[in-house]
Automatic annotation (TrEMBL), chains A, B:
Pathway: Amino-acid biosynthesis; L-valine biosynthesis; L-valine from pyruvate: step 4/4; Amino-acid biosynthesis; L-isoleucine biosynthesis; L-isoleucine from 2-oxobutanoate: step 4/4; Amino-acid biosynthesis; L-leucine biosynthesis; L-leucine from 3-methyl-2-oxobutanoate: step 4/4. It comes from Kordia aestuariivivens. PROSITE patterns: AA_TRANSFER_CLASS_4 (PS00770). It comes from the Bacteria. NCBIfam families: ilvE_II, PRK13357.1. The lineage of its organism: Bacteria, Pseudomonadati, Bacteroidota, Flavobacteriia, Flavobacteriales. Its EC number is 2.6.1.42. It catalyses: L-isoleucine + 2-oxoglutarate = (S)-3-methyl-2-oxopentanoate + L-glutamate; L-leucine + 2-oxoglutarate = 4-methyl-2-oxopentanoate + L-glutamate; L-valine + 2-oxoglutarate = 3-methyl-2-oxobutanoate + L-glutamate. Acts on leucine, isoleucine and valine. Belongs to the class-IV pyridoxal-phosphate-dependent aminotransferase family. CDD domains: BCAT_beta_family. This is Branched-chain-amino-acid aminotransferase. Keywords: Amino-acid biosynthesis, Aminotransferase, Branched-chain amino acid biosynthesis, Pyridoxal phosphate, Transferase. It holds the Pfam family Aminotran_4. GO terms for molecular function: branched-chain-amino-acid transaminase activity.
Length: 354, 354
């Protein structure tokens, strides 16, 4: 595998569908670009990758992914700067994490060379789909599914690694209010909560739909045993600003090791903002809200970037958070997006030129 | 929907592949019959079901099932008696349970009429695939997958309900030894453990593969919080015979409400065998094994029927279980299969003639 670029077989679309897309009115994750990256794992080996027109898969109804949820994914973004250069943000971390997720789900790891060469070639092909201007980006979805035709409950011997891309703007439109979980939970100790395993997400849909009916967009999950500790929001890690200190839960086997999360922690340290990475209790946050010490809550994730939370409810107690002039959420969002869009220095080498 | 039989569109294969199958050498869940049942959910309505040749699906790579594991399934079996009559076992319970699973996974419930008419017509079509003789059966796999093309983490608006069938013999060949879980776990309180959600199964593959390396076929999962309580085996509920009393964990939001499990409990009551449905601790089972009071452990599930367990390990302590002449496992397996194959009375009306 000395030159993986030679190893990728590319079939282009005869005509792009880009002219049919309204880039000013994008619903998140509904429109896909012209091409996709596909690599099959057969007989213990990842085969020659292909980039081909985005198209339906032909897959047996007995493929294990349908029955046993043996599937993992990643979320990444590509950004375009004013010089038409394309950038990604810490993509090595996504590669590492998809392999961590795969390991936990008994899926073979995907080679780094294929991952990066696939991304690079795919993004060059789709460069017109990446629009300039903060807020515009190309959402990139690498994922792996178990394709073997067999309905016994054991790991598959064949898999498909794919990358599909979707032009996006913001993930959450409007105000986001959250419910702190009291009964439902997202992950068990010793389970797969730290992995981007497909089933972790579907399992949240029903409790989240109940939250929607109460007027909340998201749930902040608490630990399954006691519901006393605030963990993550399922699509975002969560930060609490109490006074001028940021609090966030430590990563664990229940909590995703978010790339935006760790970037916020680094940026806080760079800017002399105190961060406490420790278990955060529901009761301390409610007390801080009552006393006025709780200034902000925000989510951090690739899709949402930084998402301010305007209020929360727990056990019938409702709290609204004030709009601040010196919001940390705005500060970190600006810092992060400046780096992502090549508008500022990048002291930690997070930007990756495609 | 007054006569659902009129509502199913049937396309038969031109030639059956049954002559290519060696029914004396079946690997579980690898061979599929000639036809499958398919029903699509579109615009809020389950559409006209179809029975068609078993064939690959054409499905978008952005279908939510691949990304968010929004998928549930059931396991059922059909049996043939000496008069060539086809029977199922408590299928109403499978229909109820797939809808309970669907509800938890934010999937629309599937109508009972379609479920039973689909099963009936499909099994009549596949009747030659159901072989006589105890141990032979047709494994039936209803499942639902989210098909909408959208990679935002929320419930799909389109689904596919399917039934595929696979001729089977026994699920576990040979001796089954188990490991009691000490670190990994299967389900969280407030999670989806009681549902046959696809992701519950894939999440067990890695810990189970570690158990395999230690010489154990399965894990008996313990509660995620303390690992002190024995719960289920992932593909089977678990019974412990201490003295002449059967112990099994109560159903909960972490434990599947197994149909074989509740049939065993009923048969025990019918036959004056004492059953205690209560939390069973690791320490009491280890103590009982040391004192000789622990006579048997067995699993109960549709695929495995009743599966005796010949030994277990916990925290480095290994225990072998004796072979008994008056085994409860054998007793219940005989009772159950006699009912399933129409060889005995059926006082509880569990048999369902197809």
């Amino acid at each position: 595998m000395s030159d993986p670029s030679n190893a990728i077989k590319i079939s282009k679309v005869s005509e792009s569908k880009i002219s049919t897309v309204d880039f000013d009115d994008l619903e998140f994750g509904k429109i896909f670009t012209d091409h996709m990256f596909v690599c099959d794992y057969i007989d213990g080996v990842w085969q020659t990758p292909e980039i081909m027109p985005y198209q339906p898969l032909t897959i047996a109804p007995s493929a294990r992914v349908f029955h046993y949820g043996q599937a993992v994914f990643e979320g990444m973004k590509a950004f375009k700067d004013d010089q038409d250069q394309i950038w990604m943000f810490r993509p090595e971390d996504n590669h590492e994490r998809i392999n961590i997720s795969s390991h936990r789900m008994a899926i073979p790891e995907f080679p780094k060379e294929f991952f990066f060469e696939g991304l690079t070639q795919l993004l060059h092909l789709e460069k017109d789909w990446i629009k300039k201007g903060k807020g515009n980006s190309l959402y990139i979805r690498p994922f792996v599914i178990a394709t073997e035709e067999a309905i016994s409950a054991s790991p598959a011997n064949s898999y498909k690694f794919m990358i599909i891309c979707s032009p996006v703007q913001s993930y959450y439109a409007g105000e986001v209010k959250v419910l702190f979980a009291e009964k439902f939970s997202r992950a068990a100790d010793g389970g797969v909560g730290y992995a981007k395993a497909a089933g972790n997400y579907g399992a949240q849909f029903y409790p989240t739909s109940l939250a929607h009916k109460q007027g909340y967009q998201q749930i902040i999950w608490t630990d399954a045993s006691t519901h006393e500790y605030l963990e993550e929001a399922g699509t975002m890690n969560i930060f609490f600003r109490v006074g001028d200190t940021l609090l966030t839960a430590p990563k664990s086997d229940r909590i995703l090791d978010g790339i935006t999360r760790k970037s916020v922690i680094q940026l806080a340290e760079d800017n002399n903002i105190k961060v406490e990475i420790r278990r955060v209790t529901v009761s301390e946050i409610k007390e801080a809200a009552k006393s006025g010490e709780l200034k902000e809550i925000f989510g951090a994730g690739t899709a949402a970037v930084i998402n301010p939370i305007s209020g929360f409810e727990h056990a019938g107690d409702k709290f609204d958070l004030p709009k601040l002039d010196d919001s940390y959420a705005t500060f970190f969002k600006d810092k992060l997006t400046d780096i992502q869009y090549n508008l500022s220095e990048d002291p930690h080498g997070w930007r990756y030129k495609v």
